[in-house]
């Protein structure tokens, strides 16, 4: 039941539900990864089942692929799709220019490839993800396992010349073992506290041998849909310069909530 959801989950759900209005039959849709994106996948699955929505979904992780299949979405690979109408995904931080930090769930590589291959990227988030300046959330960087400690040292040395407040990197763990991405790589989380020039940092990090990709999404996101715990939703479109507000009614979605409650 909706009353069992925390305000943060209600906010994530509200953003995801509103973002479904960007999707229509015939579209190829990039499906993000994370708890907010999981709400989106469930909502789209409901629309496939109840409203006959016909879409093809390109998942950004093995987790999302599994969930999408479970809820009845037709899943295809990026190579089959080649280009997408839209990608809808969560974020760890977004700023006023809709630049993002992503990769908290470890899927930044597929997420960036899929979003970049889309006509439009829509981010769904609760208001806690909004920041003045990116960097409080540790910046995930995907690195190949070969020589990862050397890559880490090179990154930390490179950070000395950058406009950031912290300069340490830590290997992401999964319990007692290093975390592996879907591509078999590791994640280094960079504790920067504040990123003064995100565009420059992104370019410089990606020059370091061993780095596959970083979690800064610069000039990729077009729209952010911000959910609040009371069902309010704000939609900001960076290209149109528009902001609109609406309200999501939780009661209509009791079936969806009961699927995941308990
Ligand atoms: C996964 C991501 C997620 O979109 C990001 O971590 C946000 O996750 P959540 O919606 O669970 O807060 O980038 O790699």
Explain what you see:
- The protein is of the alpha/beta class.
- It has two domains: 7-129 and 219-247, Rossmann fold; 139-213, Alpha-Beta Plaits, CATH 3.30.70.
- The protein has helices at residues 7-19, 35-51, 62-70, 78-81, 108-116, 148-159, 198-205, 254-260, and strands at residues 28-31, 56-59, 74-75, 84-89, 93-94, 100-101, 118-126, 139-143, 168-171, 173-174, 177-178, 186-191, 211-214, 216-217, 223-227, 232-237, 242-247.
- The strands form four sheets. It has an eight-stranded mixed beta sheet with strand order 3-2-1-4-7-15-16-17.
- Helix 1 (7-19) packs across helix 2.
- The relative contact order is 0.18.
- It binds ribulose-5-phosphate.
- The site of ribulose-5-phosphate has 18 residues, from helix 2 and helix 5.
- Ribulose-5-phosphate (5RP) binds at residues 32-37, 89-92, 102-108, 111.
Largest sheet: 8 strands, mixed
Number of strands: 17
How many domains comprise the coordinates? Answer: 2
CATH architecture of the largest domain, by name, is: 3-Layer(aba) Sandwich
Strand content: 25-35%
Helix content: 25-40%
Order of helices and strands: HEHEHEHEEEHEEHEEEEHEEEEEH
Global morphology? globular
Per CATH, the class of the largest domain reads Alpha Beta
Listed once per kind, the bound small molecules are: ribulose-5-phosphate
Q: Residue ranges: pLDDT <50 for 5 or more in a row? A: none
**Biggest sheet, strands in spatial order?**
3-2-1-4-7-15-16-17
Separation, N- and C-terminal Cα atoms: 9 Å
Count of separate DSSP helical elements:
8
CATH topology of the largest domain: Rossmann fold
């Amino acid at each position: 039941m909706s009353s069992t959801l925390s305000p943060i989950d209600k906010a994530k759900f509200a953003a995801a539900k509103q973002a479904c209005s960007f999707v229509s039959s015939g579209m190829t849709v990039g499906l993000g990864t994370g708890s907010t994106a999981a709400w989106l996948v469930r909502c789209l699955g409901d629309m496939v089942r109840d409203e006959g929505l016909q879409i093809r979904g390109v998942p950004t992780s093995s987790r999302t692929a599994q969930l999408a299949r479970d809820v009845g979405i037709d899943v295809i690979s990026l190579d089959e799709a080649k280009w997408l109408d839209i990608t809808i995904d969560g974020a760890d931080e977004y700023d006023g220019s809709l630049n993002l930090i992503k990769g908290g769930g470890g899927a930044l590589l597929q997420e960036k490839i899929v979003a970049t291959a889309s006509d439009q990227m829509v981010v769904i988030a609760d208001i806690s993800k909004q920041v003045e300046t990116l960097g409080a959330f540790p910046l995930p960087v995907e690195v190949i396992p070969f020589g990862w400690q050397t890559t880490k040292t090179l990154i930390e040395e490179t950070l000395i010349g950058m406009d950031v407040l912290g300069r340490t990197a830590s290997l992401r763990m999964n319990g007692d073992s290093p975390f592996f991405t879907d591509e078999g790589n590791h994640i280094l989380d960079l504790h920067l506290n504040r990123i003064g020039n995100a565009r420059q940092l992104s370019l410089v990090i990606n020059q370091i041998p061993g780095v596959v990709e970083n979690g800064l999404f610069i000039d990729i996101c077009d729209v952010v849909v911000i959910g609040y715990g009371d069902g309010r939703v704000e939609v900001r479109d960076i290209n149109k310069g528009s902001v609109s507000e609406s309200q999501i009614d939780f009661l209509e979605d009791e079936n969806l909530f009961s699927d995941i409650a308990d």
